[in-house]
């Protein structure tokens, strides 16, 4: 009888511990689940904090703000407070005065000049101007940051993962003319402006000048300027004036426009990142802009002009390694990013979206291609080589004549029967 009693007592004790353990496990499970919920609710809050911190870095106190008809806000920021001067190498400095332009600056190909042309941006329609002593900066909004695939890489091109510029695996595709037989100290060209269709919001299409030095591996230095359409970056399909730079092949340094510290703006008339208007019309009026990048022989900085006549600002030579001295290559042309969202080639267009064979009024072009030589003189870009990564998608044809100097037509529709 006593044995049976002890057995029953032991059994009851085991059941008690079993229930206690289960209860503890359940309590622990609820506690863990509560922590997971708390973590989940913290993530949006953390993202919001990061967004607010980034906006405070990018948007500086302004003395005046202009609301553009296209929804942009242009902030008139005191020139010495712009983002560039947050850079450790530039802190405490003020913008420099523009240097003299290169020799032969006013030389143009007969018939190729557009002396009456004026670069207009959408915000100019308000007829408001930024005061002297300020620079016109496009305001970055929370919506801009929320569209970005990564806050850490906001305002940067998708990284290339290859040592070859024309690598298919990188997603970047080009149709370009280039020179690489000398030391270069700048470049100049006119390009007509379009608004090519973008196949996926994460993709872009641009037309620009590249000034390059270093290898296409890890130490490539580039300076870039032109027009681009990028729904992810700007939230629309307008062609926008942009700048770019990198010192490590697009990996960790550099960015578009003022999205990181570096480019020093000196003008209150042009806002980098703002829409250009008007745009070229297929089989109709063509509108082009003139871009010039040149190295100041005295201080070594790389200056940018958006023609005719507006000096936009400069990239300080201290940002660079190879380009602190000179460029080894200059490229002109188009680039798209192909994310292959459906597994096939993107339908993102380059240039006008039409092949170069269609010619004037229909295809995109670069004309009057020039470079700046060792003597700080502008000369014709001779010995131009043409390269299209995928001619069935985007092609390039060029030549020389007395009207346009060195020129080429380029671009294409992207996905088509020759570009599956």
Describe, in short, the structure shown.
This protein has 420 residues and is α+β, with helices and mostly antiparallel strands.
Enumerate how many helices there are, as a single number.
3
Averaged pLDDT: 87
Approximately how much helix is present in the residues? 10-25%
- Count the beta strands: 20
What are the defining features of this structure?
420 residues; globular; disordered N terminus; Neprosin_propep; Glutamic_endopeptidase; Neprosin PEP catalytic domain-containing protein; signal; Neprosin
Write up this protein.
With 420 residues, the chain is an alpha+beta fold. The protein has one domain (59-411). The protein has helices at 2-58, 142-147, 231-234; strands spanning 64-67, 73-78, 120-121, 134-138, 172-179, 186-192, 205-213, 221-229, 240-246, 264-265, 276-277, 288-295, 302-307, 310-315, 329-337, 364-372, 378-380, 385-388, 395-401, 405-411. The strands form four sheets. Strands 6, 10, 12, 13, 14, 16, 17, 19 and 20 form a nine-stranded antiparallel sheet that branches. It has a six-stranded antiparallel sheet with strand order 9-8-7-15-5-18, with no helix packed on it. A hairpin with a 3-residue loop joins strand 19 (395-401) and strand 20. Residues 1-42, 109-116 and 161-167 have low confidence and may be disordered.
Strand-helix topology:
Elements: H1 2-58, E1 64-67, E2 73-78, E3 120-121, E4 134-138, H2 142-147, E5 172-179, E6 186-192, E7 205-213, E8 221-229, H3 231-234, E9 240-246, E10 264-265, E11 276-277, E12 288-295, E13 302-307, E14 310-315, E15 329-337, E16 364-372, E17 378-380, E18 385-388, E19 395-401, E20 405-411
Antiparallel strand pairs: 1-2, 2-4, 3-11, 5-15, 5-18, 6-12, 6-16, 7-8, 7-15, 8-9, 10-14, 12-13, 13-14, 16-17, 16-20, 19-20
